[in-house]
TrEMBL record:
Keyword Nucleotide-binding among record annotations: yes
Compartments, record wording: Cytoplasm
Protein name, UniProt field: Flavin-dependent monooxygenase
Domain FAD-binding as annotated: residue spans: 3-320
Residues noted as binding NADPH in the record, renumbered to the chain: 36
Domain notes: Consists of an N-terminal FAD-binding domain with a Rossman fold and a C-terminal substrate-binding domain.
Primary location recorded for the protein, binned into one broad class: cytoplasm
Length: 745
């Protein structure tokens, strides 16, 4: 047997053949095992790479090579905020090891002389009856009874079987290294953490691996054309690094250092792939494995699949010693099915990392516990540290009761500490439906400390939820905890003690709803409730300010028929503006719609529709609560809307624009402000976008600058309960007109 290529796949094949007493020779073009670096760290998967090592009899020796603690995963925003973190749980399910160490392990397990170094393949000639003559650059030849191409992406054996050639996959990885990171680059080392760190955004990203010996090995990922890459001179390391770093302008300095401070010249690795369904007709005496057979974008599976290919080919040959064609057919049938599925996954992962929904689609992929999650309820959190309405928490249990807009078999909740100054400790948590409560855990633990600025999800709970069910979320806060990250207006708090899961909270208190106001449920730290086990027809994100926050999305979800699988998620914030962040004196009005769009829209799992439903805050607040020079022009307002539309549509999200309802009593007589409202409404109605006319639904027929009295809250500006229900019905009618699946007609 002749194996071309001493990579992990070819060496695994040779090792397993050796264990079965089948001789083989591996021919490798490199002059020696140390001729070049072998790349960075690999995570070796249980059912592929680890299974191959078990077949090779090398599991125990492999375990001695593992970089302990390196299975930790962290996802950061471009500004360095932690979006997701999972520690190394010590289970060893995906242990990390250096590729060079793993290759050396395989080499050392082979009899001397198995690998022939410095043998560069130059040609293969068929001799008939499955035999081939293989020619090398040194002038030597060998005749093979069985030829295996394990020679990578640009295999010279592949043309014997297939006309397929790799094509550019639309992305390039630029490889950099930092050394002695804890001493020389402490901020970057802290950002990367103990394992792998991802920082992603549409079209670009940074993936960094902490390796043994204080090394950080980084792949800078760019979805750019081949022509763009050709314009960079990588022989000038400083200029190339600066050009790559320019693509990441505005990113956190500790992340940029992974590009600019590299201690080796950057190396561009263009990503190529074979067709995902690549296969060939059975050809006597020759086959392929690894990248030669199924080159695909990086997904963490390439080396694992190559090793499994090698192990399974060897096992098939050992099981059919007198029928090589049957062995090859058995091997190729299994490999084709496996590689086709994995190639599809690899392309999906590339889109998750670099597509228009990055990093949120990727977060759902790695943090979903193998389940497909749908938001059953959600709110947009804001900074409540300056609010005096609620005292801080200490040794109390909070209970938030929220309606599920869609059902499922499992449930989990997202707790956010985004706007706090310090970590928040959740001592105990429970989730309930009806009279059944289940303890919530965090990575298997009953309590969690949520660092400032980040969110944590509970582990999935098998708890059936039906559309319309009240989902109860209990949080016990054992320590002094500021009222910081919050939204919503109604929640219960107990007297002292942990009462999570109790039928009633002793001495529970909740502020009564002021008469005439529509105040939805919500509360501190709670951001999203998700369910799994259902296939949604649509996920609608309501994005806006107070009239949205005050409840029409919740009423709209309730108006949908029981059989509708449509989730409606409320991402409205009272006082919020489209173009500007909240003023310093009122931080609870939130970041601007332009700034929070990524988190609150793209960060909503599976979003299919976006309803942009803002009020008049952008032009109603300047000169009253904020400086008059913050007054926008109509062109600025339209540009802001258009930016959101463009971002949403690029991510495949359909957009519906809501007209702006009448101004409050103190603003109606200002002709400039009313003119801005009318101009914007005219653009919304006539600009060619799907529209829901909230203005027409609530305005008074007698005076269209006022809210109809039956729909107005006491301030004459916001909708009351009737008004919110009226907006909800108007929204349902608009969805039906737009042909949204599941909307009543």
């Amino acid at each position: 047997m002749t194996i071309i290529g001493a990579g992990l796949g070819g060496l695994t094949l040779a090792r397993v053949l050796h264990l079965h007493g089948i001789p083989a020779t591996v021919y490798e073009r490199d002059p020696s095992a140390e001729a070049r670096t072998q790349g960075g760290q690999l995570d070796i998967h249980e059912h592929t790479g680890q299974a191959a090592l078990e077949a090779a009899g090398l599991t125990e020796r492999f375990r001695a090579l593992i970089h302990q603690g390196a299975e930790a995963t962290r996802v950061l925003s471009p500004q360095g905020a932690v979006l997701f973190e999972e520690p190394d749980d010590g289970s060893g399910g995906r242990p990390e090891v250096l590729r060079g160490d793993l290759r050396r392990l395989l080499l050392d397990s082979l009899p001397p002389g198995t690998v022939q170094w410095g043998r560069k393949l130059t040609g293969v000639t068929g001799l008939g009856a499955g035999r081939h003559e293989v020619s090398f650059a040194d002038g030597s030849t060998v005749t093979t009874e069985l030829l295996v191409g394990a020679d990578g992406a640009w295999s010279k054996v592949r043309p014997l079987l297939s006309d397929a050639t790799p094509g550019y996959a639309g992305a390039t990885f630029v490889e950099t290294y930092l050394y002695d990171v804890d001493e020389r680059h402490p901020r970057t080392a802290a950002a990367v953490g103990a394992g792998v760190m991802y920082a992603l955004s549409p079209g670009k990203g940074i993936t960094a691996h902490r390796e043994a010996g204080g090394v950080i090995h980084t792949y800078v990922e760019l979805a750019r054309s081949e022509q763009w890459l050709a314009g960079i001179d990588f022989t000038d390391a400083a200029a190339a690094s600066a050009r790559i770093a320019a693509e990441f302008e505005g990113w956190a300095p500790e992340l940029l250092a992974l590009i600019t401070d590299g201690q080796r010249p950057p190396v561009a690795r263009m990503i190529y792939a074979l067709p995902g369904d690549h296969r060939w007709r059975r050809t006597p005496g020759v086959t392929l494995l690894g990248d030669a057979a199924h080159l695909m974008p990086p997904s963490g599976e390439g080396a694992n699949l190559a090793m499994l290919d090698g192990a399974e080919l060897a096992q098939a040959l050992a099981a059919n010693p007198n029928d090589v064609p049957a062995a090859l057919a058995r091997f190729e049938t299994a490999m084709f099915a496996r590689s086709s599925a994995e190639a599809g996954t690899a392309h999906v992962i590339q889109d998750l990392c670099l597509g228009e929904r990055a990093p949120y689609a990727f977060l759902g992929f790695i943090g979903g516990h193998g389940l497909d999650w749908v938001p059953a309820w959600g709110q947009a959190v804001a900074d409540y540290r300056a609010e005096d309405d609620e005292p801080d928490f200490d040794d109390v249990t909070l209970r938030m009761t929220v309606p599920a807009g869609i059902g499922g078999s499992h449930v989990r909740v997202e707790l956010s500490n985004r706007f706090a100054d310090a970590p928040v400790r959740i001592g105990h948590a429970a989730i309930g439906v009806g009279d059944r409560f289940v303890e919530a855990t965090f990575h298997g633990r009953p309590s969690v400390q949520i660092p400032a600025g980040v969110s944590r999800w509970t582990d999935p709970i098998a708890l059936p939820v039906a559309k319309g069910d009240d989902v109860l979320i209990d949080l016990y806060l054992p320590e002094p905890t500021p009222y910081a990250t919050a939204a919503g207006f109604r929640f219960d708090r107990s007297g002292p003690g942990d009462f999570t899961g109790a039928p009633r909270l002793p001495r529970a208190s909740v502020a009564p709803d002021p008469a005439g106001w529509s105040l939805p449920a919500g509360g501190p730290f709670l951001r999203t409730v998700e369910v799994a086990g259902t296939e949604p027809q649509a996920v609608i994100v309501a994005f806006g300010s107070s009239s949205t926050a005050m409840g029409w999305p919740q009423y709209a979800a309730g108006l949908l028929p029981a059989e509708a699988r449509i989730a409606v998620v409320n991402r409205g914030i009272p006082g919020n503006r489209l173009l500007r962040d909240a003023p310093e004196q009122a931080p609870a009005w939130g970041q601007s719609g332009l700034r929070r769009f990524d988190d609150d829209v793209l960060g909503t799992a599976g979003a299919t529709h976006l309803v942009i439903a803002y009020n008049s805050n952008d032009w109603g607040l300047p000169g009253r609560t904020t400086p008059i020079d913050e007054m926008p022009t109509i062109d600025q307002l339209i540009a802001g809307y258009q930016h959101l539309i463009d971002r949403a549509e690029a991510a495949g999200i359909a957009v519906i624009l809501a007209t702006i309802t009448p101004l409050g009593p103190e603003l109606r007589t200002d002709p400039h402000r009313e003119q801005l409202r009318q101009q914007l409404n005219h653009w919304i109605r006539t600009g060619g976008h799907e529209c829901v006319d909230f203005d027409a639904a609530l305005r008074s027929p007698a005076d269209p600058t006022r809210l109809e009295a039956d729909y107005a809250a006491p301030d004459g500006t916001h909708p009351n309960i009737n008004g919110s229900r009226r907006l909800a019905q108007t929204m349902i009618d608009a969805l039906a007109r737009a042909g949204t699946a599941g909307a009543p007609r």
